[in-house]
Amino acid sequence: MTVAENMAIDKVMLTSRSQGWSPDTLLFLEFTPCALVGYHQSVELEVEEDYCREHGIEVQRRLTGGGAIYMHEGTLGWAIYADKHAPGIPADRGEMYARMCGCVTRGLSRLGVNAKFRPKNDIEVNGRKISGTGGTELDSAFMFTGSLLIDFDVDTMIRCLKLPIKKLEDKQVASFRQRVTSLHEEMGYTPDLKTVKKALLDGFSEGLGVTFAPGALNDKELILLAQEASRLQSQDWIRGGRTMDQDSALKVSDFKSPGGLIRVSVLLDRNRKRIKSAFITGDFFAYPERSILDLEAFLRNSSSDDKDIFENIQTFFKTNNLAIPGVTADHMAQAVCQAISSSAESEQVL
Amino acid sequence: MSDKLNGPKACGNWMIHEDVKYDRNNFWVKTEGRIAYIGLSDYGQWVIGDILYLDLVPQGAELLKGERFGSVESGKWVGNLMAPVSGHVREYNPAVVADPRVIQEDPYGKGWIMKVELESIEESETLLDHAAYAEFVKEQARDAA
Lengths: 350, 145
Hints:
- The complex is a heterodimer of chains A (350) and B (145).
- Chain A has helices at residues 3-19, 43-46, 49-54, 93-109, 154-160, 170-177, 183-187, 193-208, 219-233, 235-238, 291-299, 306-319, 329-341, and strands spanning 25-30, 34-37, 58-61, 69-71, 75-83, 116-118, 122-125, 128-138, 141-149, 247-257, 260-269, 274-282, 302-303, 346-349.
- Chain A has 350 residues and is α+β, with helices and mostly antiparallel strands.
- In chain A, the strands form three sheets. Chain A has a six-stranded antiparallel sheet, with helices on both faces.
- In chain A, a hairpin with a 3-residue loop joins β6 (116-118) and β7 (122-125).
- The longest helix of chain A has 17 residues, at 3-19.
- Chain A starts with a helix and ends with a strand.
- The mean pLDDT of chain A is 93.
- Chain B has five helices and eleven strands; from the N terminus they run βββββαβββββααβαα.
- Chain B has helices spanning 42-48, 94-98, 101-105, 121-125, 130-144, and strands spanning 8-11, 14-17, 21-22, 27-32, 35-40, 53-56, 62-63, 68-74, 77-82, 87-92, 114-118.
- Chain A binds chain B through residues 38-40, 63-66, 90-93, 97, 120-121, 132-138, 242-245, 271-274, 301, 303, and chain B through 47, 49-50, 52-56, 70-71, 73-80, 92, 97-101, 140, 143-145.
C-alpha cells in the first residue's frame, strides 16, 4: 500500500467499525520511507523537507495525535479498531492505553524482549522507546495504534525530523541514539515480520481475551479506501491550516551544577507555551540510569512556565526517587529554565 | 459573557452550574435570546485531560447539532468536538484559541469556547438541565470506574 493508503486505512476502518461493516479488528501496516506528522502538527515545523525530498521520503499526516515519526521498512505499524464499548476495553482512556500497550508488551515478551508500558503512552525497554502510540475516535468506534521499531534507521530519523539536537554533533547524535531501541538491538538479530506479527497477534489475543480470524477489506471498505487515499494525497490535507498558532524554537544551554554540567536542548512552542521535546545530557551520574530518559518523556508537551517547570521536576524527582550526586531537582529545573530563556539557535513561526 | 456563571454545585469531583444546559458530549450551553455561549463542562474538560491542541471550523461556519465542528488533542489522542446546537459560529474565545489550558482552569467562565447564533431557540431547550446532567455524569463516572 502507498503511504497515503496507509494513512487512509485508519479513517476507513473507523468508519467501517462505527457503521457495523466490520468486527473489531487488529491490523498491521508496512511502510516505505515516510515522515508522518501528528494530526494537529504542521509539516514545516516538524519535518526537514529538503532532506526528505532529496532522499525520497514521503511526507504525510496521521489521523492520530502525537509527534512526528519516521517510518520505513524496518518498522511495523499496528492498530486496533474497536467499538468503544467492546468487552475488555476500559472506558477510562489512561486504562485503555495501559491495556493496549500491555497487549504489545505481552507480544514482545514472546520474542524474549522485556518491554514495558511507560505512561502516558509509550512502550519502552529499559527506558528506551521501542513503540510510540496514538489514537482517535469516530462515532462509536475508536482506534489505538503504534509504530514498532524492528530494525530502525535512527540516523535517517535524526536527519528527516526536526529534533532538539544542535547541528547533528556526533556526541549528541550518539546520545540521542540511546533514546530509542529496536527488536534488532534487543534480540541481536532482525526477526522476520511474520514472526513479529504472530507475537503481537498472540499478545492482543491473550491481553484482550479474544480470538482473531484472518480477514480482508470488504467492497465498501475498498471503495472508501480509494476515496480517502485520494483526499489524503492532497496538499490541503498534508499542509492544511490549523486554528492555533504554532511555533518551534530550538534552545540550548549549559548549566553548571555542583554535580557536573547539565546540557539541555529543548524544542519550544512559544505560542502554546509548551516544551515540545527536551534532550538532557551532561557529565552527571543519574540513578536509576534510565531516569533522565523518563524525565525527558515526562517533560514532553509540558508547560514552559518557570513555576510549572520547577513543580513538575520536583514532583518527578520525588516520585521516581531520582538521585543525582550534586544535582538537585532545583538544579535540573534551573537548567531547563535557563535553556528556555536563552536565545534561540533556530526558530520557525507559522 | 460574564466571567463566572452562577450556581455551581458539586457532583462527585466536578462542578455543575445550574443556569446552563448540557448535552451528552459534556458541553454546556448558555442562551441569551438567539445567542448561545458554549463551553466544556468541568467533567468534560477532566475527561479530555491536558489539552495540547484545539482545532475549530472557521468563524462564520454553520454548525449542525451532533456534527463535528473541531478536534481536540490530549496525550496523543485526537477527539472530535460535536456541536451541541445548530447555528452559526459568531466568535471564538481568543483566550482559549491561544491557550486551551484556560478551559481547564475555568471551564464555565474564562474558558468559554464559542459564541453561536442559534438556528432555533427551541432546539436548545431540548438539552439536559443541571439535574439530568448530574445523573448523566454520575453514570459516566461509574462506567469509567
